[in-house]
Amino acid sequence: MKSINTVKLTIQSLPENIALARVFVAAFIAQVDLTVDELEDIKVAVSEAVSNAIIHGYEQRGDQWVDIIVTRFDDYFEITVKDTGKGIENIEQAMEPTYSTDADRMGLGFVFMQSFMDEVAVTSEVNKGTSVTLRKYVAANQDAPN
Amino acid sequence: MLLNTVTMDGSLVVKVKGELDLLTAETFRNLVERELNRGRAQNLILDMEHVSFIDSSGLGVILGRYRRIREQGGTMAIVGVKPHVKRILELAGIMGIIKIYEETDQALADVN
Fold first, then answer.
1. ipTM of the assembly?
2. pLDDT above 60 for A101
3. Which residues pair with A70 in a beta bridge?
4. What pLDDT, on the 0 to 100 scale, is given for residue B21?
5. A95-114 average pLDDT score
6. How close, in Å, is residue A141 to chain B by CA atoms?
7. A81, A108, A114, B13: least CB-packed within 10 angstroms?
């Protein structure tokens, strides 16, 4: 399907930039008529994906880069969060809701992404990086530019 | 994020304003731990009325403090969550283990 519009944001891998990433995505997606709850859901999903890139992909090294690409198609939005970090050896295991060894981590990042988005796809290569693609369906042709 | 704390009747009341995510979770954890380490509060009441956003990093530090309070034999309560924050708490199962109140006074009366 042909895309209608794409925006891209590249952030340094710092926790300070996570809020910017989710607001950037929400502002772009808000051009269609979604509810406040739906926008909040998308913000949580983006926050989880970017946090994962910083925490797991880059192991909290702040001198790396995370790309956030949002594309509008006719009846859905696609958000891709990409890092070039250490990658995930076992994606299925990483997506399971487990309590982390860190007492203050819940291991619910992917659970939230799956709960709040219509589709979640993860591709990863060890020592090359991870790409998380989140898809949200919307009513077709809402305010689509000609 | 803004935090303010007050200890009353053996309970630490923490008011949180703003967003609770990976950036702010550490500030929250450090402040609450510091206050609990003073040893004046057995219970923890978290006022989330003005929390505008929370994700799993924010939930993680709340759960971490819940464990601490349980270990010291106290009770933790949450006050005043917005609907979209409540949905996140529900999804994470927090509402099954921490009671939610509308008013701080109710929570204080109950935990004591």
1. 0.91
2. no
3. A7, A79
4. 96
5. 76
6. 27
7. A114
* Rounded Cα gap, residues A144 and A22, in angstroms: 22
Superfamily of domain B2-111: STAS domain (3.30.750.24)
Give me the CATH topology for the region A5-137. Answer: Heat Shock Protein 90 (3.30.565)
Q: Where are the domains of chain A?
A: 5-137
CB B59 within 8 A of CB A99: no
For residue B52, give the chain A residue with the closest CA. Answer: A40
Residue of A nearest to B26 (CA): A104
Dihedral class, residue B93 (left if φ above 0, else alpha if ψ from -120 to 50, else beta): left
- Closest-CA distance, A74 to chain B, in angstroms, reads 27
Residues B49-88 pLDDT 10s: 999 999 999 999 999 999 999 999 999 999 999 999 999 9
